[in-house]
Amino acid sequence: MPERLDEVPLNTVSAEMRVLLYLARSHRDPQWRGDVAVQLLQGMDWELLIKTAINHGVFPLIYRNVNLHAWECVPSDVRERLRRMFLGNAARNHQLTLELMEILDLFDSHHIPALPFKGPTLAASAYGDVALRQFDDLDVLIHRDDAPRARLLLAEKGYISPYGLTPKQETTVIRYQKHFLLVSRAKHITTELHWTVEPITNCLRFCDEQIWGRPAKVSLEGRTVPTLSAEDTLVLLCLHGTSHCWDRFGWICDVAEHVARTPALDWEVVVDQARDLGCRRMLFLGFLLARQLVDARLPDSVAATARNYPGVDRLASQVVQRLLSRPNDSSGTWFALWFRLAARESLADKIRFTLERFVIPDAGDCEFWKLPANLSFLLFALRPLRLMIRPFTKAGKGL
Hints:
two-stranded antiparallel ribbon, disordered C terminus, alpha+beta, globular, Beta Polymerase, domain 2, 19 helices
């Protein structure tokens, strides 16, 4: 596997993916020349580039660098379209940020501790500008015991479950799952309440007490907002990307941008956290991809460890091949299952992942089976059946 972008063979990479590889970043080495952008954009299929950038979650970065270094290469009609799209994304991000502030104020007024993560907080801390990252929902960490109250407060703001669950079914979801999805139809905003920051497809055990005990601060809309520490955020980004098989280039950019803007990052804490979770392979996979594809500025010792850690090189090769050889799409079910199992280091974690994935009921199961509360225990046996018939029904959600 190549160690840096300039070693990645680009002769078989599509023109639009080459643009993403070189321009999807907010920082540059001093030696980088702006005329590289001009060369990359010669004869560009702008429709395909725009679609690819949006699908990979990096459109704002592409717009920014094209605007700075190669605006003269852009046809006039495309310029106006790009500008409108960038401003539209910025306005939407601003709306989501204001909504997050309202939710945090609401929870605070009812003495519900909350830590927002990803979304606006990551955009501000990792990119330095909320407008430079694509995100379309809000994620807020709360304590599990506060989940029922928080859900009722959001209901008063017009949030509902997209699954149409009854209150008793919602209680079942809160008991068995790690997050709860709510949607404001009026504002077209999705908010996820989490009581652990682990991605739903990872089934690992973050020490929530430590996370609550070492929050960081980020500035949003002139206010200081608590969020996850820089070290916890980096671990979470690598777990999140792995849980989605790194299908979006933007998730790799998140890792690189976060590292670039956190020079005081305590790498020992990061690696220790991953070791305690049993997810060093996932962590080093994220590091290696960020190093290879976005030239992330990792310490030499960390980069060497990531490169040589067992199983990482094989997984990284799969990700790079899928990213660069075909358009962004959702991972096939069997590949995703293999990838998520291969990313786990111990047999116990593989078994636990399989059991939680195929046995623990989620909101989709509650909606599909519509069992009374006193029969909710049957959802454990019924979930495998729903997963088997899922491809044949629109009602089955959430594999």
